[in-house]
Amino acid sequence: MDSEHYDITAKSESEANQEQVAEMIKALLGDRFKLKFHHEVKELPVYELAVAKGGSKLKTNTDGGDNHKSSTMRGKITGQNVPLETFVTLLSNQLDRLVLDKTGLKGHYDLQLEWSPELSRAATATDAPPPPDPISHVVT
Q1: Measuring CA to CA, which of 18, 67, 108, 124 is 20 to 30 A from 130?
Q2: pTM of the model
Q3: Which is nearest to 121 in space by CA: 140, 93, 98, 95?
């Protein structure tokens, strides 16, 4: 896969949803490249993002509009007018572990989150349980 690259152009005869398109791509790759797929269920560690008992302290963006900005650095995520789903994706990427949104919150937020990345990396590098709360400083 690292040595040869291919461009594949395909067209569906009718409208298809995302699941149907995925199945069509699998069939095409199997037919053209003799690729075979198998599915397996695997338990992986995840984080759940939830609202604390005192309620959310996230700052709702009041500027309106569809534009949002976000930036990430090791151990830091900042954003303006960021949908929570985008924040969860950014957090998952930073922690190298799936983060599930269990907040039930909707809307767009202005946020800044900082943590000690060496603690979160150590937890994902082994099968050991995560260290106690790697979040060292949160500004909302």
Answers
A1: 108
A2: 0.58
A3: 95
